[in-house]
Amino acid sequence: MTDLNRPTEAELADQLANAPEAPGAENGDDGGGQGRRRREIFDDCPVTPLGVNGDFAYFLDVNGQMRRSKEIKVQFLQSIFGHQINKLRWNFPIWINTAEKGDPAVWDRDPKKIDHAFASMVLWEAASECGVFNPDNSVRGVGAWADDDGALVYHMGDKVLHQGELRAPGRIDGRIYPAASPIPHPAMGDSFADPAPPIREALESWNWTQPALHTQAALGLLGVQMLGGALDWRPVFWLLAPAASGKSEFQKLLRYLHGDDGLVQSTDATKSGITSQLGHSSRPVAVDELEPGDERSTKERDIIMLARVAASGGQWFRGSADQSGVGGKVYSAFLFSSILIPGVMKSQDVQRLIRLEMNPLQKGAKGLGLDPRTWRARGARLKALLIRRWPGWPERLAQWRHSLEAAGVTGRDADNWATVMAMADMAEADDVAPEDARANWAKKVAFQVNADRSDTTNDAEAMLLRLMSQVFDPWRKGQRYTIAQWVMAAAGLPAAPDGLKQQLYSGDDKGNYEKRERQKIANQMLASVGLRVYDDKQHGARLFIMNKPVQGLRELFHGSDWADGVWQQSAKRVPEAMPSDSANTLAGITSRGVYMPLKSIPGLLSLPMDHAREDGAPPPSDDLEDFK
Questions:
Q1: At residue 308, what are phi and psi to the nearest 5 degrees?
Q2: pTM value?
Q3: Are residues 555 and 414 part of one domain?
Q4: Which of 281, 413, 439, 601 keeps 20 to 30 A from 274, CA to CA?
Q5: Quick one: CA dihedral 96, 97, 99, 101, positive or negative?
Q6: DSSP letter string over 129-196?
Q7: Is 20 part of any domain?
Q8: Closest among 1, 19, 416 to 231, alpha carbons compared
Q9: What is the DSSP letter of 466?
Q10: pLDDT tens track for 557-567
Q11: What are the beta bridge partners of residue 245?
Q12: Contact assessment for residue 176 and residue 50, using Cβ atoms and an 8 Å cutoff
C-alpha cells in the first residue's frame, strides 16, 4: 500500500525547483551537512552545541543553562528548546497531508509533532563537530574569574560583567559561562558611599585576640571570598571562637554582605554536599561548627582536604556507581569556624591556614542589630569597589609580598598573608598602602605566624614525631618506654630513663662495661623493629632505619601516613640524613636504609625536664663526643 504521507516525486521536484539559493562559501562556516552551518543545529538556533565527552553530548539550552544528555529523546529536546519549541517543530517537521479527501495533496507541518529521530541525529552531529568537551576546564559558574589576560570576569548568573560590559551568559573568550540562578550583583553606578568604614567598624566590635591584625584580616577575608575564583591562591581561614564570643553573629554578617545565594553556608556540611552546591561556581564556602568528630569518621578530613585543593584551584575526585568517577575543579575560598580545630589536619593543610581567634564578648556587650537590607547594600558596594580596583591587583599583591618577606614571612605564609592583606588594602583605598604602613602590618603578621607555627612544619618532622613517640615494650614488663627513650639508651645519652637503664643491665660493674652492655642490649631490642644506633668519629651518633617494611616498623607506623615503607621517603628529608651505600643486618634481616643524625631528631639531646640536679654540678654537654 502506498504511504500517503510521503511526498510524491513531482512534489519533491517542485520543492527543489523553488528552494532558496544555497549560502555562499563565505557564509557556510565549512558546512555541516543538511543545509546547516558547521557546529550549529540550524540558523538562529536558540540551543548551542558545546561538544561531546564519552557517551554524553553537551549544549547550552534556550535559557543559557549547560545541559548534557546521553540519549537525545523527545523530552530532552522539549526541555532544551523550552519556550522556543516552535523553532524545533519548524526545522524538524513531520509532514501531513491537510487536503480534503479526494483533493490534491497539500503538505504542511504537523503542529503537534517533530521528527525526533532526525533532530536527534542533527544535534549529535553538531555536538560532535565541536569536538571533545571537558566541562571542568571550560565551564565557569557564578562568581569571580580571571580571563587569560588577567582581566576580571564576574558571572552573576543572569549577566556576565567583563571589561566593564554586561553580557549575556554564554561563550566568552573561549570559556563557557552558563546561565544560572542569579547571585547578588555588585552595585552599579559611578559613585556611591564608601562601604569599608562601616564594615571595619562592625568587625572591630568582636573581641579578637589580636584586635588590629584580626580586624584587618577579617576585612581581607571578605575580599578573598568575593573575588576568590580570580585569585591564583586562596588561603584557608579558620575562626576559633569559644562560647559567647559572637561567632554566630559573625556568620550572619557574612551572609548579609554576600547576599542570598552568594555564599555556601552550612553547619552540617559534607564534602559531597559542598561540591554539589558549588557545581562549577567559585562562590565562597563557610562551614560552622567543624569540631573534632569521631576518630573513625572521615567527614572533617574530607572537607579539609577539599579546602586544601581549592587553595590552588585543583581537582577533586570520588567514585561513582558506573565506575567512571566523578570530579571537578574547585576555586572557592573556605572559612571554617569552631571552638577547636580537628586534629586531622596535615602539615600541608596547616601551611594554607590563616587563623583568626575571638575571645568571649565582654559582659553587657550589645549586639550589632544587623539590618539585612543595609548590609546587603554595603556588600554590593564593596564588591563593586573590589571589581573596579582589580586592574591594580598584581602590583598591589607584589608590594605586599615584598613587605612581608622583608619581615621574615616567606613561603606559604607569604602566599597566605600577602593575599589577605593586599585584599584588605584594596577594600580601603585606590592606591597601595605606603611602605611604612605595610612594614608595620608585616611585623604584626610575622608575630602571629611565629606564634601559630606548628611544632611539626614538614613531613620529616612529623614522621620523627610519630616514630619517637611510639611505646616499645619488648619484655612486656609493664613499665613501657618510648622509642626516643630507647634510642637515648642505645646512644648512651644521660637523658635515658633510670628505670630503662636498670632493665637493660643490673650487674655490679658501675664502669664503662655496664654502659656498653646497656647500649648493646638496647640496640639489640631496637634492631628487632628495624632500628639501630650507630656511632663513629666521622659522622657521630646516627639512627639507622630500615627501608624494608619489617613487621616492627609496620606496627610502629600502622595507620599513619608513613605505613608500608613510606617512612623511608620522609627519613631522607631529615636534615643531614644519608641513605646507606650498603645493606646492614639487623636481627637477622638485611636491608638498606637511612642514617639520621641524632642531632637532627628534636628532643633527643635535651635533658629531661623532671630531673633537677642536686649535686651542684654543671649540666652535661649536649655534645655526643662527651658521652663516648
A1: -60, -45
A2: 0.75
A3: no
A4: 413
A5: negative
A6: HT-B--HHHHB--SEEEE-TTS-EEEE-SS-EEETTEEE-SEEETTEEE---S--PPPPPSS----SH
A7: yes
A8: 416
A9: H
A10: 998 889 888 99
A11: none
A12: yes
